[in-house]
Automatic annotation (TrEMBL):
Record has Cell cycle as a keyword: no
Main location: cytoplasm
Native organism: Oryctes borbonicus
Protein name: Ubiquitin thioesterase OTU
Domain OTU, chain residue ranges per copy: 117-243
GO (cellular component) term, any one: cytosol
Catalytic activity: Thiol-dependent hydrolysis of ester, thioester, amide, peptide and isopeptide bonds formed by the C-terminal Gly of ubiquitin (a 76-residue protein attached to proteins as an intracellular targeting signal)
Keyword Cytoplasm included in the entry's annotation: yes
EC numbers, comma separated: 3.4.19.12
């Protein structure tokens, strides 16, 4: 039957599937969802409704129509954890490292209503870091088109005022060159910019690095009270947000002591790494905007910059 579609949400995004019919079986559905989410069928947990409740997918030969699943439904995919043995309750997205907290604190946190940690895709326009920072601070993208330029200027001014901490050895070039370079709209932000932005806004920025499957926490040593999350795939940053199971407004700023969500981010980045959702920086294609030469990978770009003095590159 044509026109049967399901909206699928996972920790790394959402998509619409249209290759099932009302006559497809629960087994067909579980196999498809397992492939999409990279979660083994026996660990797959599917939620639907508002607030989301766990669907009973035990009848493998039951048709989707008979099970009550209809076109247009939204299904949220989770991996079963020990906590999921409790029945008839709203499931908490709670993959976490318990060694970072005591049992009392953990128990208090898992009792809170939760949601699913997802990424919001921002444009690949060389300012994705700044766009992502604005999104996590405001819950929306900049509609003025001026924030990235303002952040670049603020970063340059911060560096100019602190030559001791931003020496040529740290910057990789002279302070004058770096400050000019970072204000160009073709320049990419990175660790230096993240540390400055964390300090300026007084917030911890946790970057989920899918290449190395780790969380890099900028401002971790400053004991900031709040934390935001970004996803980094090697060349591109996207903001992460929590979509509540109950629906309503998304959340982008979190208490810095929320270890449950930090555990969710760790799980997300490991899943993204295992499914190779990152860019090999040694193979992606670049173009020098100053001489139009095409380059392959980060090493070639660095060699070209050293030999020519060109610093304006963009991914193609």
């Amino acid at each position: 039957m044509a026109g049967f579609a399901l909206k699928i949400k996972t920790k790394v995004g959402q998509q619409v599937v249209q290759n099932l019919t009302p006559e497809s079986t629960i087994k067909d559905l579980k196999q498809l969802l397992s492939k999409i989410s990279n979660i083994p069928v026996h660990k797959l947990q599917v939620l639907s409704g508002f607030p989301p409740k766990t669907l009973d997918l035990s009848g493998d030969h039951l048709s989707l129509h008979a099970s009550g699943i209809t076109s247009g439904d939204t299904l949220i995919l989770e991996e079963k954890t020990i906590a999921d043995k409790q029945e008839n309750r709203t499931i908490i997205n709670s993959s976490t490292t318990r060694t970072q907290t005591n049992d009392a604190q953990f128990a208090e946190q898992v009792s809170l209503p939760r949601g699913i940690l997802m990424k919001h895709v921002v444009p690949s326009d060389n300012s994705c870091l700044f766009t992502s920072i604005f999104f996590v601070l405001n819950g929306k993208e900049d509609d003025t088109g001026t924030v990235a330029s303002w952040m670049r200027q603020m970063i340059a001014q911060t560096i100019e005022r602190d030559p001791e901490n931003f020496s040529e050895a740290i910057l990789g070039k002279s302070m004058e060159e770096y400050c000019k370079w970072i204000q160009e709209d073709t320049s990419w932000g990175g660790a230096i910019e993240l540390s400055i932005l964390s300090n300026y806004y007084g917030i911890e920025i946790a970057v989920a690095d899918t290449i190395n499957a780790i969380i890099n926490r900028f401002g971790e040593d400053q004991n900031y009270s709040h934390r935001v999350f970004l996803l980094f795939d090697g060349i591109h940053y996207d903001p992460l947000y929590l979509e509540p199971f109950e629906g309503g407004t998304i959340q982008t700023i979190f208490p810095a002591d929320d270890l449950i969500l930090l555990g969710d981010a760790e799980t997300l980045v490991k899943e993204a790494n295992s499914s190779r959702q990152f860019t090999d920086v040694n193979k992606f294609s670049l173009k020098c905007y100053q001489c139009n030469i095409l380059l392959s990978g980060q090493v070639q770009a660095q060699q070209h910059a050293q030999s020519t003095g060109h610093t304006q590159f963009g991914e193609i």
